[in-house]
What does this fold into?
Amino acid sequence: MTDLLSLFKTTGAYSSIVKDKRSGTLSHAYLLITPDSKNLDEYARIVAKIIVCEDGEPCLSCRKCRLIDANAFTDVKFYPKDAAVKTDDVNEIIEESFIKPIEGDKKVFIISHAETMSEIAQNKLLKTLEEPPNNVYIVVLSTSEFSLLSTFKSRVKKFEIPPYSEDALFSALMQDCPDEEKLRVAIAVSDGTVGGAQTYYSDKGFSAACTQACDVLINMKKSGDVLRFSNKVTALGDAVDEFLSVLLLALSEMLYLNEGKESLIKNLSFPELKNAEGFTRGSIIHAIETTNEAVKRKKANVSDQTVVEWLLLSILEGKHKWQKS
Ligand SMILES: [Zn+2]
It folds into this structure.
């Protein structure tokens, strides 16, 4: 299993909540912000364990810790019931908060995906957030704070989970993701979250996107090749975005190699790119700028075919233009 706990332990959020627990000053409401939508519940379970485990930190072996991991501890309640937090969820939390804990002395309500809460739902919860019944704790998780009202945020102790370093993610994920090279690339193009790296790693299109990016940079030589290569790239479908991310990563590594700064790259994602011929410093920089522009055009809903053909042709033109400089 991915070792999210070890990563989380390196954050200020984790140490602050543990400190609150140990000094008997737990806040009745915490808000954790992380773009890692895939692992919100796992973060929530860790915070719940800090709150209820007698150790002050998740011991992982007591009855409470084990039951929380199995989503089966009666005093820790998870919301929403569906994908988004609805006013029905909030009504239930308010009602339930008045019922005493069954197994221990603390009751924890977890609200994931708070970014989906309407203003009405947030307003309904304000009073409970501000002054919940005794021994009730509310842990709110959100992928962003933009949709949260300032009155909501002012009633919770807020922490942001910063992106993790590539090395830290690698150590945490290597057991789950045995293909080391693929994992390194997935982490490099991710947003510094466990979920981001996991998503890239396990996505079938991602491997194909890596192959296509290297193929384009090594084997696309003349304008007559553009249509064939762009057809292969657009056949990636949803993974065209990933192709663009991987291409940027590959080009930035080529730039380091070109400038003789190979020692600055700890792990070369695509060693085969040492064989990419005909690129100079100027044409690599041009290709990076062009790829960034392609990302923008794609976001502006220009069709994949148009964007990719334009991109590949521009990369080739750059190669010819900067050939001798
Ligand atoms: Zn425990």
